[in-house]
Amino acid sequence: MMYPGWIAEYWGELQALIRQDAEYKIDITKHALNRCGSDLERAFLITTLQVFGERYYAMLHEKDRPVFLWHNEYEGMTRLTLQAPISIGGHNYRADFLIEYASRTPAIVERAHIVVEIDGHNFHERTKEQARHDRKRDRLMTQEGYTVFRFTGSEIYAEPYDAAMEVHQYVHNLQQQTLKSYGL
């Protein structure tokens, strides 16, 4: 059985990445940390990589954008992209993190798009206009099928593990619901 869409696109690269050495993985991870827009995003990325598991594959794709992949033949594939471009209703946005999950079952592939935004005080909610823009963007993404997790800078600063675990638990629940619905 083949994966459709983005999974098929990455399948060949994933096969090569399985043999990727630790030094390459460290280099891509360092590059990703440098591409993060803030210390809060860096904290979330480091914690997310730990929570989702150290058995990830790292690569650069699309305009030098870091991508991380987790693959399990039974549960499916999860892809995390930093500063992912999203076009909705004629508007172009950049998500701090886009997590895409596709489950592989005997009969169907299900997919989820999860946007994670880290709102530092300097860029979000300093004004009512910024807060209104963020809420409108969240609504547009939700209407298009995205699940949006928006964390305040204070949440990430105080406990990045809790935020990463909340997102991981959401993906894990999707995996379990899909497997259960097919009696697996």
Mean pLDDT: 80
Count of discrete structural domains = 1
Structural class by helix and strand composition: alpha+beta
User: How many strands, what sense, and barrel or not for the largest sheet?
Assistant: 6 strands, mixed
Poorly predicted runs of 5 or more residues: none
Radius of gyration: 17 Å
* Count of distinct strands: 6
- Which outline best applies? globular
**Widest sheet: strand order?**
1-2-3-4-5-6
What does this structure look like?
This protein has one domain. The chain is globular and about 50 Å long. The relative contact order is 0.15. It contains six helices and six strands. The chain has 184 residues and is of the alpha+beta class. A six-stranded mixed β-sheet has the order 1-2-3-4-5-6, sandwiched between helices.
Notable characteristics:
184 residues
Summarize the structure.
With 184 residues, the protein is an alpha+beta fold. It is built from 6 helices and 6 strands. Strand 1 and strand 2 (65-72) form a beta hairpin.
Could you give the topology of this structure?
Elements: H1 5-18, H2 22-35, H3 39-52, E1 57-61, E2 65-72, E3 76-88, E4 91-104, E5 109-119, H4 128-143, E6 146-152, H5 153-158, H6 160-181
Parallel strand pairs: 5-6
Antiparallel strand pairs: 1-2, 2-3, 3-4, 4-5
Helix pairs in contact: 3-6
